[in-house]
């Protein structure tokens, strides 16, 4: 990734904030539990929600930096001029999968909103937790698109020089 390319800064901050809040509420719960023999009721529900946010925000960062776990054998065996085709196919498969998650995640959040479902632990509307799934999947799609465009440009800049 070039130094001038955006590096998913909002997603990095969101992931860092989610991790920080998880640490603070978990530590606070441990301290309160051992000093008072009681615990905060909200910590599990919030921690699970924040862990999902952390995971998807981190996935967006990884998509932008192109550091997701993958098999590079085919990519390395292809001549540089054919790699953009592979990159577009990888992108299309990822967008298809994430598009399904966006669609069904948004549908689920909408249904939970319409049904006015409440979370079992704290009684908050469940759509507040669920709406983050499609939104963060859209962020991943955006970062995958940026990464794919950048990788294709790099291949085109190297041109016909098949060094790999």
Folded structure, characterized:
- With 164 residues, the chain is mostly helical.
- It has one domain.
- The protein has helices at 9-36, 43-65, 73-77, 83-115, 126-130, 132-158.
- The longest helix is centred in the middle third of the chain and has 33 residues, at 83-115.
- It starts with 8 loop residues before the first helix and ends in a 6-residue tail after the last helix.
- This is TRAP transporter small permease protein.
- Pfam families: DctQ.
- The complex comprises the extracytoplasmic solute receptor protein and the two transmembrane proteins.
Keywords:
single chain; 0% strand; 164 residues; mainly alpha
Q: Main β-sheet: number of strands, strand sense, barrel status?
A: none
The tally of beta strands, per DSSP, is 0
Estimated radius of gyration: 20 Å
Number of helices, counting only DSSP H or I runs of 4 residues or more: 6
Rough shape? elongated
Average pLDDT, all residues: 90
Low-confidence stretches: none
- Estimate nothing, just give the exact number of structural domains: 1
Oligomeric state of the chains in view: single chain
- Report how far the terminal alpha carbons are from each other: 18 Å
- What is the helix/strand order? HHHHHH
Strand content: under 5%
What level of helicity do the residues show? Answer: over 70%
| SSE-based structural type | mainly alpha
């Amino acid at each position: 990734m070039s130094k001038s390319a955006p590096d998913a800064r909002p997603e990095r901050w969101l992931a860092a904030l989610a991790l920080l809040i998880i640490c603070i509420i978990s530590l606070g719960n441990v301290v309160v539990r051992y000093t008072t023999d009681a615990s905060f009721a909200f910590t599990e529900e919030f921690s699970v929600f924040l862990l999902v946010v952390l995971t998807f925000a981190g996935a967006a960062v990884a998509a932008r930096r192109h550091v997701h776990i993958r098999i590079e054998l085919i990519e390395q065996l292809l001549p540089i001029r054919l790699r953009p085709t592979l990159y577009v196919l990888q992108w299309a498969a990822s967008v298809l999968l994430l598009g399904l998650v966006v669609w069904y995640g948004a549908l689920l959040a909408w249904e939970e909103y319409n049904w006015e479902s409440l979370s079992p632990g704290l009684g908050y509307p469940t759509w507040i937790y669920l709406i983050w799934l499609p939104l963060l999947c859209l962020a991943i799609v955006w970062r995958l698109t940026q990464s794919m465009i950048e990788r294709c440009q790099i291949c085109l800049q190297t041109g016909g020089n098949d060094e790999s």
